[in-house]
Automatic annotation (TrEMBL):
Coiled coil: none annotated. It comes from Pseudarthrobacter quantipunctorum. It comes from the Bacteria. Residues 257-279 are annotated as: Disordered. Residues 257-268 have a biased composition (Low complexity). Pfam families: DUF2071. This is DUF2071 domain-containing protein.
Amino acid sequence: MNKHLSAAALWPDPPELPLPAIMAQRWLDAVFLHWRIPESSAARFMPPGVEPDVFDGSSWVGLIGFRMKGAGIGRGPGIPYLGSFNEVNVRLYSREPDGTRGVVFLSLDANRLPVVLAARQAGIPYVWSRIRSWGTPPGTPEGTGGGTSGYSVSRFRKGAASRFSVTPDLGSVADDPLSIHVTARFGLHSRFFGRTIHIPNTHEPWALHHADVHELQDGLISSAGIEVGGPPESVLYSPGVRTQFGWPRVVTGSLGVRGQSRQQGQGQDIRRPASPGLR
């Protein structure tokens, strides 16, 4: 992908999901940290039927933290307690042969055990962790930067931990092609009972701001099986968006071996709800 393409050309129109929507939720105080990695490092984690979505000759791995707020079934109210929690995920970027883009999660840490157990039943790699968040105080004047926003994660099992925070520049607008590439993602690719599925979602464009790393001590990316070095090349902050999820579909050809499955990107719907926290 040409890094000189305009942001407007890269940001797709948010898709309209067939009714009924199966879930709605808000993602707040999102922090995005991204590192450049070789395409071959990402390719080994791609489910059959999809391949790494490359930008500027590289794949990208993201460490993302946000606060889930008011996740609920359909367009109904948020589920008390279980519908609001902190999440930190490690993710890669995927693409079907027909151009459908998505994310592939390597891990998703959350501090609600019932949510973790339900999501793992659907094949989504959630991990039960203790997560603390802190954010820019409400009402911070535009353009002042307004303090730090960050997350700390400590897993109850397997021992991996992370702590990261950024100082947002709330007077900036992050509309460069790389920022759009790693945030204009309207679905995920995952394995479900031996098949690759795509779970779509839709939301308005993120309000993205450039940010500076304030603190970074991470063990989640290496725990997922990817090594990065040095500071992240992309650092972003967003106050958040509201999103809705649609029904999953099977990616055609995903039952075959990887070399035979990159033929078609369309498939049948699976009438099974997605889990909270999928972006």
